[in-house]
Amino acid sequence: MLRDMLRILIAFILALPVLAGDLQVGVGRIKISPEQPIFLSGYAARKKPSEGVKLEIWAKALAFSDKRNGRAVVVTTDLIGMSRSLSERVGAEVEKKYGLRRAQLMINSSHTHSGPAVRDNLDSMFDLTPEQRQVIIDYGNGLVSKLVSVVGAAIADLQPAEVSVGHGTGTFAINRRQGPSGGVKIGLNPAGPVDQDVPVFRITTPDGKLRAVLFGYACHNTTLGGDLFLVHGDYAGVAQAEIEAKNPGVTALFMLLCGGDANPNPRGTYALAEKHGASLAAEVSRVMAGTMKPVSGPLRTAWQMTDLAFAPHTRAQFEEELKGTNWYKQRRAEAMLKAYDKGRPVTAIPYPVQAIRFGKSVTLVGLGGEVVVDYALRVKKEFGAEDTIVAGYTNDVMSYIVSKRVLLEGGYEPVDSQIYYGNPGPYTEDVEETVMGAVKRAMGKVGRKR
After folding, report:
1. What's CA 72's distance to the chain center, in Å?
2. CA 28/CA 169 separation, integer angstroms
């Protein structure tokens, strides 16, 4: 009888909501600026390596732990994007050293176009000498070690913390898909959809001292153009540096949200990157100074893989492409023909979806690839906009991830960009429903229902 009562009491206690302040948080950071000239990624127009560092770039980590041994680590990087090959290496090492499952490790990239090329990401964009390619390989190997190290540093720093969330509004993102269906080009589309939300996580000591801030925005990190050759974190790097300068000892982390079809406006100079970064930092500071919502455990995490199918293609299609004069298409054709020669034509690509839920409030959704804004708007509509944060550029950046609307409109994101990513062509029309299906399964695993 007593044993039964104890079991009931324990079950009752475990069913109680975990109170605010039950989280421990650790912070880590490590510089990832290249130490030698390296090709900067993001613009095919660049034909030479970098010429120095104007703003240092970083990998930073927040480790979260709750009283029930739930854990999650969020890593942010000032990089164009992680490739699946590198993020899998990081995940395997982190699991081996720290016991974190892959679902508990989220790696986001700011997608700065003034950061170093990352191995196995946008390889078709560059015509490299063997020596230049080796620099990228060496940088990638060093990057893996640094990311594992920064995760370890954050875990070692775990201590009691108060976590809160709030939201601000950005001002400089604009939809860049301009023109009629079938003739869309990159430009300015003030009538197009954007997500100006600026979510902010504030991490303090129990007595209120600021330790770290994690914030996001859905806008390409492309204030700086392909005519510039200095390493720089673009507006996101400036915003982080501004917050840290005003709060000595604090670590500021930036996550890129679903900004695949949004650009900064205006753009093109270092002065504009400073301006946009300063405005974003000011908005984050304003949010932190106001009333924010407490965030608590328990922590729940989910990892969901799916496959995105490419539209049908033929060997003859790439044989013709190989005969053309477009060097980038020739590179793509060579890779596709090799796959045909092996009897394994590329018909689909693996796609990761991740979810981290804090208690019954905040859910952070991580989507791979350059995700267009339609996904963020749809996920927030279906699961509740308040404190549902949807990040793109997470764990793997293998292509643009377009909605059905964008796919049917055509243009750079669904079609032309696949050349530089080395993919055979656009996705099939069910791409949006495939991604959303994986999102729904991941959300279900962390207890979020529509």
Report:
1. 16
2. 27
Cis peptide before 266 (omega within 30 of 0): yes
Rg (Cα) of the chain, in Å, rounded?
22
C-alpha to C-alpha distances, 84 to 368, 395, 420, nearest whole angstrom: 9, 7, 16
Residues in the chain: 450
Q: How far apart are CA 173 and CA 262, in angstroms?
A: 6
Residues 6+ apart with CB under 8 A from 290: 166
- Angstrom distance (rounded) from CA 25 to CA 204: 9
Over residues 250-288, the pLDDT tens digits come to 999 999 999 999 999 999 999 999 999 999 999 999 999
Q: Which tokens is 108 given?
A: 């986001």
Residue found under tokens 């300068």: 245
CB 294 within 8 A of CB 17: no
**CA atoms in the 13 A half-sphere facing the CB of 401:** 33
Predicted local confidence at residue 449, as pLDDT: 80
Taking the mean position of all CA atoms in its chain, how far away is CA 249?
A: 25
Which residues make Cβ contacts (< 8 Å) with residue 120, sequence separation at least 6? 83, 84, 85, 86, 140
Q: What is the largest CA-CA distance in the chain?
A: 83
Contact between 168 and 294 (Cβ < 8 Å) = no
Count H helices and E strands in the chain, helices first. Answer: 11, 20
Dihedral class, residue 164 (left if φ above 0, else alpha if ψ from -120 to 50, else beta): beta
What's the pTM value of the predicted model, to 2 decimals? 0.94
Q: How far apart are CA 385 and CA 197, in angstroms?
A: 10
The answer to whether 190 touches 164, Cβ cutoff 8 Å, is: no
